[in-house]
Amino acid sequence: MAKVIQKDKSTEEKILAAAKNVFIRQGMMGARMQDIADEAGINKALLHYYFRNKEQLFDVIFMQAAGQLFPRIRMIFESDVPLFEMIERFCEDYIEIISANTYLPLFVFNEINRDPAGFMKKINGAMGFPKPELFLQKIEKEIKKGTIKKISPLQLLLNLLSMCIFPFVAKPLLLVNLQLDEMQFRAIMDQRKKDVARFIIDSIKK
Amino acid sequence: MAKVIQKDKSTEEKILAAAKNVFIRQGMMGARMQDIADEAGINKALLHYYFRNKEQLFDVIFMQAAGQLFPRIRMIFESDVPLFEMIERFCEDYIEIISANTYLPLFVFNEINRDPAGFMKKINGAMGFPKPELFLQKIEKEIKKGTIKKISPLQLLLNLLSMCIFPFVAKPLLLVNLQLDEMQFRAIMDQRKKDVARFIIDSIKK
DNA sequence: GTCTATAATTTGATAGAC
DNA sequence: GTCTATCAAATTATAGAC
Questions:
Q1: Are residue B100 and residue B14 in the same domain, yes or no?
Q2: Res. A144 pLDDT band, cuts 50 70 90
Q3: Nearest CA to A62 among A122, A124, A6, A134?
Q4: In this structure, what CATH number is given to the domain that contains residue B25?
Q5: What is each CA distance from A63 to A17, A124, A199, in whole angstroms?
């Protein structure tokens, strides 16, 4: 195997970290290349040396963010385990994944809002969007078996997604309104892993 | 009573409608005055004649949006009715209010994310932010009375807010991914008014 | 690879005629 | 009130030296 020339990535990594922060705070349009350069401790010219333009830089950041989110959700949705276990795993894993990058949901929903078709094209081309079909089927089967109450599978899916994702979208509001710090928010979300799963199962089980 | 000189509002209204659309799609920073002028069918100069600058125009749009949302949520949270009824009223009223302006949640959360302290100051100065204290107290009382299961009041509040608000944040994703049109989305949200309330009550009642 | 200096473009805002 | 023309400032992007 040929020896791979190890390009020095320290500057590129500094840029990506800085860009991530600025894009999260300001969004694609609000972000300023100067701010990214400042936060990376370099100048604008070097930014353009590494990434030809702003759009390309944003795409790298966005696909990187999407890449650490969607494939893992897909895995949960595609795992063939009993319904209750799938619910528990989704709450546990999803909240854990996002807790490491709480900005992700709002960031992603904004990009979808800006260009829904473009988003789906980008994601499907690169990694495939998580499909909840198996989850919906499992719900219908359990209803037919009579092990859970009659409920619209789509509504139940929305409930699950809502309760796992929404608190992260609302995080800035929760922090300022409930006067929480990062530690306290993290603790509430940790608690939520078990609470949401139990809340759902309590509601649907017969 | 003196006769009020009726200023012609048709142009101003066209501007406000156009600005709302552009700010929703692009956000405060992404919005272009030219785009707003185009959508209103006028030119930039006239835009500046009606609203001195972009920030002022955005503030009008934002406070208008907030004004049709927060006071009504306050009323629900402050109404002294039994817990289950409050849950039912919240689902019914909140989903109904937002259905008329589905863009509101994402719009508001973005502004909070951009400047949390500034947001609270603006809202509290103008109309007061909805306080869920009464709701939280009612939950604790019902737990003590033994009429509902033991549950963290904060987590239950988060569940309620999540399930009512999140689908609107995720609307662009739902439309493109589930291939829904506006009518179908509206129907699902209508169904949700009753479904979410029942889902919650089923989960907590003993 | 990294910088300084500057070009090129976009965009918010104003002046002044009608 | 509304427009055309233009300015001033901000911002992306490049040229060229080291």
A1: no
A2: very high
A3: A122
A4: 1.10.10.60
A5: 14, 11, 33
Q: What is the CATH number of the domain that holds B118?
A: 1.10.357.10
Q: What are the counts of helices (DSSP H) followed by strands (DSSP E) for chain B?
A: 12, 0
**Domain span at residue A13?**
8-52
Q: Cβ of B202 and A199 within 8 Å?
A: no
List the 4-33 stretch of A: residues with Cβ below 8 A of B: 25-30
pTM of the model: 0.94
State pLDDT tens for residues A74-105.
999 999 999 999 999 999 999 999 999 999 99
**How far is the C-alpha of B157 from the C-alpha of B171, rounded, in Å?**
22
pLDDT of residue A200: 99
Size of interface A-B (CB pairs under 8 A): 138
Q: Is the CB of A34 under 7 A from strand C?
A: no
Whether the Cβ atoms of residue A78 and residue A134 lie closer than 8 Å to each other? yes
- The tally of CA atoms less than 13 A away on the side-chain side of residue A54 is 14
- Do A172 and B113 make contact, defined as CB atoms within 8 angstroms? yes
